[in-house]
Amino acid sequence: MRVLVVGAGFSGIGAAIRLRQAGFRDVLILEKARQLGGTWRENTYPGCACDVPSTLYSYSFTPDTAWSRVFAGQREIHDYLRTTAQRYGLSDVLRCGVEVHAARWDPAAGRWRLDTSDGPYSAAVLVLATGPWHVPRPLEVPGIDGFAGPVLHTARWDQGVDLSGRRVAVVGSGASAVQVVPAVAAQAAAVHVFQRTAQWVLPKPDLPVPAAFNRGLSQVPGARHALRAGQYALQEGFGYAFRHPPLARLVEAGARAHLRLAVPDRQLRQQLTPDYRLGCKRLLTSSTFYPALSQPHVRLHPTAVAAVRGNEVLGADGSTARADVLITATGFRIGELPLARSLHDADGRTLHEAWAGEPQAYLGTTVSGFPNLFLLLGPNLLGGSTSAITVLEAQLSYLTSALAHLDHSGHHALDVRPAAQAAHNTEVQHALRTTVYNTGGCTSYYFSPGGRNTFAWPWSTGRLIRQLRRFDPDSYSVVTPAGTDQPSRVAGGTGMLG
């Protein structure tokens, strides 16, 4: 086929829809799971929900969903993705239960050759929509394999485990922990929360949305667009503060006030107060996390977990907690792109080897040496407050423009020039030096093991959208299949180049 998309979460579904709308009909999505949904299929832990307003965390081309809450829960978001896929007729281009084992660029044919659980596939263009929140990060401490009870990662939840009346230990204090701890505390007899690093938490106005309000959004022209624009402006306000650290202190003051009002106990407040600037790590929002920690049957252990011994969890500070169930809210291996170790260029070098531990791309989308490969939500595209869907849609505009350029020019493939990629990433790293992401005094998943920020975009989302709005052919070199004197052209520009 012309375009092969790997992954059927927000990125993959959006890519297929936008490509077909742009006239590229020869598109196929491969999804290794039995159904679509991505991270919203995988994360089913109690309390799982979006931390971006629902109206903004949805496709701009499908904005008419009547969300039940300001911040939708996991099940509602998963339903939205399934409904959207049905609405745009993706069933005929979606193949679930097909896992990609390896992919290699074939220079003779000018195509990607894929080895999958369903046999070989071939495509002129390969789009990786596997997402950064895909590979769970396990808790790796001595004795965990011998824990005398269920061990659950928030991204691998077992709905068959009943927490009612049981002693539960939760390891972690990040985005999934602030959601799962209140839900667990409502069921368990005792909850022990192990916090390696305190987090800044802002209140979350997670209110139900009245049906009348949703009807008004649908009936009043421009109302939904205005709401989305307002939410975007609020998110960008946080982003602006993170790019100008002195302003981040104002947001930090709000977080301190939230902590002071929600936690009466002075010692607990001290344990929950971070020693770094707000924005250095991912911004967290919750109005239930602090009250949950203040309940008498919940205890905070302000320490990392050192080991597990039987049914005891041992903290690095010497504290212990007996538990019947162990929940690891330890997040994901953000910098480890799925397939990076099995995606090969023409010389057999893998993407993992090309990156050497520090992922980088041109505009977070294309990688030099890997022709006709497009990464969605790739390196240095996101930030502490940006909606991933806004970034994704900007990339999809770039993708469709690139394919249109291929059709109109008659070229088989394009490869971003090494100099263009290097210049872009040098500019990115230079701009990041003064942001709170780099100067806030913390360690975060934004950074590679070598100390390079490979996650954050250092400018406004508006700048990102402008840079991705139009494909820039001067940054690319033409790749012609071996033995081809002149590249073939596509009659009528139908997007069916094969």
Salient structural properties:
single chain, 498 residues, alpha/beta, FAD/NAD(P)-binding domain, 2 domains, 5-stranded parallel sheet, 14 helices, 31% helix, disordered C terminus
Provide structural commentary.
By secondary structure, the chain is of the alpha/beta class. It folds into 2 domains: 3-135 and 333-493, 3-Layer(bba) Sandwich (FAD/NAD(P)-binding domain), CATH 3.50.50; 144-199 and 281-328, FAD/NAD(P)-binding domain. Helix content is 31%, strand content 17%. The protein is built from 14 helices and 21 strands. The chain has a 5-stranded parallel beta sheet with strand order 3-2-1-7-19, covered by helices on one side. β4 (100-106) and β5 (111-116) form a beta hairpin. α1 packs parallel to α11.
Can I get a quick summary?
By secondary structure, this protein is of the alpha/beta class. The chain has helices at 10-21, 39-42, 74-87, 177-185, 211-219, 223-243, 245-262, 266-271, 289-293, 351-355, 388-409, 418-432, 436-439, 461-469, and strands at 3-6, 27-31, 94-96, 100-106, 111-116, 119-123, 125-128, 151-153, 167-171, 190-194, 201-202, 284-285, 298-301, 305-309, 312-315, 320-322, 325-328, 343-344, 373-375, 413-416, 476-479. A five-stranded parallel β-sheet has the order 3-2-1-7-19, covered by helices on one side. It has a five-stranded parallel β-sheet with strand order 8-17-9-10-13, covered by helices on one side. Strands 6-5-4-18 form a four-stranded mixed β-sheet, with no helix packed on it.
